[in-house]
Design brief:
This protein is α/β, with parallel strands linked by helices. It contains eight helices and nine strands. The protein has a seven-stranded mixed β-sheet, sandwiched between helices. The termini are far apart.
Length: 258
């Protein structure tokens, strides 16, 4: 369920998390879903969009399970209910019922053991290894969004709790210098992943939200799956992201950075 990138660059104290791009629905979960229900608001295609990071040697953890099965960016105690707040959703983001019979707490516990904990364990293992080797870790939690902001990219640090303002400003300036409009902590401050894994000293964690309109297509998105991609927009965005992360790596490796 979890993929760890190979070809790790031993000089990089960087870890990437991609928690919401999975499309896999386990058979036992799919059998209880409403026939024909759509599962929108997946962070579509991010592993492919960011696959240049593997060539750079960046260590990644990618979740292949659809977020509607269990959301690894929510705390374990958030329970069953709203897709905006809960661990296990009963409705999609358009308010449509997902199940013919909603999951109960026993099913939620089963999903935690089967899908949730393995993701966080893999992420914690890599972060621990990197911190022991370098003394610090930079965690980039990669997401995308369809609505909520006019910016191309929104960086979240829980208002400075998981990354200092000067570091966040530097990252925002890098994205801006490569042609993106970048916002900070509005409207997306960050979720459970950066809160939980960024709670330790010398772990600098940031949630990176990329607008669908910056890489999929310049249109509004609704109750749909696997939206069609504008190839020219995709290629332009990917090139700008690659330049941005090259600059971010240079910044992280700079001994004189704040």
């Amino acid at each position: 369920m979890v993929y760890r990138a190979e070809n790790i660059n031993e000089n990089l104290p960087i870890v990437v998390s991609i928690p919401h791009s999975g499309e896999e629905i386990p058979v036992e979960v799919g059998e209880s879903m409403t026939k024909g229900v759509l599962l929108p608001a997946v962070d579509w295609y991010l592993p492919k969009l960011y696959d240049f990071l593997t060539d750079m040697g960046v260590d990644s953890v990618v979740n292949h399970i659809n977020r509607h099965v269990i959301d690894v960016n929510r705390g374990e105690m958030t329970g069953i209910g709203s897709p905006n707040q809960c661990l296990v959703y009963t409705k999609n983001t358009m308010g449509r019922d997902i199940y013919t019979k909603n999951p109960d707490r026993n099913e939620m516990k089963r999903r935690i053991e089967a899908y949730y904990k393995p993701y966080h364990d893999a992420l914690a293992e890599i972060i621990t290894q990197k911190k022991e080797k370098y003394g610090e870790v930079w965690l980039f939690d990669l997401h995308s969004f369809a609505l909520g902001a006019d910016a191309d990219i929104v960086l979240g640090s829980l208002d400075g709790k998981t990354m200092s303002d000067d570091k966040l400003d530097a990252i925002a300036e890098i994205f801006a210098s490569n042609g993106f409009t970048a916002a900070k902590n509005v409207p997306f401050k960050g979720g459970h992943i950066i809160k939980y894994h960024g709670r330790n000293e010398n772990v600098y964690a940031v949630q990176v939200e990329l607008n669908y309109q910056a890489y999929i297509a310049r249109r509004r998105f609704g109750n749909e799956e696997n939206p069609a991609v504008d190839g020219e927009l995709w290629n332009d965005c990917r090139a700008k992201l690659e330049k941005s992360f090259k600059n971010i790596i240079e910044y992280i490796n700079c001994k004189n950075r704040p």
